[in-house]
What we know:
Blueprint: E1 3-8, H1 12-21, E2 27-33, H2 37-46, E3 51-52, H3 56-62, E4 67-70, H4 80-86, E5 90-93, H5 101-114, E6 118-120, H6 128-137, E7 144-150, H7 162-165, H8 168-171, H9 174-184, E8 187-195, E9 210-217, E10 222-228, E11 237-244, E12 247-251, E13 255-259, E14 264-268, H10 273-287, H11 297-316, E15 320-321
Parallel strand pairs: 1-2, 1-4, 2-3, 4-5, 5-6, 7-10
Antiparallel strand pairs: 7-11, 8-9, 8-15, 9-10, 11-12, 12-13, 13-14
Helix pairs in contact: 1-10, 4-5, 5-11, 9-11
Amino acid sequence: xxxxxxxxxxxxxxxxxxxxxxxxxxxxxxxxxxxxxxxxxxxxxxxxxxxxxxxxxxxxxxxxxxxxxxxxxxxxxxxxxxxxxxxxxxxxxxxxxxxxxxxxxxxxxxxxxxxxxxxxxxxxxxxxxxxxxxxxxxxxxxxxxxxxxxxxxxxxxxxxxxxxxxxxxxxxxxxxxxxxxxxxxxxxxxxxxxxxxxxxxxxxxxxxxxxxxxxxxxxxxxxxxxxxxxxxxxxxxxxxxxxxxxxxxxxxxxxxxxxxxxxxxxxxxxxxxxxxxxxxxxxxxxxxxxxxxxxxxxxxxxxxxxxxxxxxxxxxxxxxxxx
Length: 323
């Protein structure tokens, strides 16, 4: 029997999941809700057998959902996850999961109490190149990591308002912070600096143009992760580099490069990580076995804690311990 799936939020990232789920035999999109009804109606026309609902609760009560995808902006999560979990509906939540750590912890508690499966859209964890990087560094002490998400300015209104997006570290570079956690373990402390002023001509813009973050991991690894949203199209760079003795591991979204004194290895990404994370979630819901999910909601709370500590450090000028 197919897994019956609903969506709250039917914008750009949801459309990416629609395309993947339509190719999975065991998945069926049946319910759609969006605060902009016309978007939900348009999505319903794209997905035969689905229906746009006038309210979220109406969808929960009428659509017979097994699973729910939450694909809304960071500030707009409301009670979607809690209401679904209370009804035994499994959850796929797009990153970032919130702009408030206290709220994310409440949701994590509700998911745990309900015993539902959860997955969060940290797609870099599903790359075959990431798996290869983990194999290479297993058992090795990593002295230094350097991460970066330098790109252009996403031109959606909520992204440039820090109260709504959380800023670039929380909303975008969160992928690199999460990848660093996945490969290196938990973060002990962060110290961050930010720069503003180059985007003052955009109404309501109050996020940093750039930030530089120093991190200490509990393993002892030290790292820097830099962000900027001011690069011209095609002029940015995104990735994470790891350094051990006589070893450099460089991860980009498109591939992996490994350098040692004796050889150099390059590997192109051979999978669509968005498709893999969707397939993994559907299979987990169908079988009840969530062991293949690589980012649960509870784990994503830890990444959120790191990125919110970045904002706190920028605002206070202090080193922030990550709890």
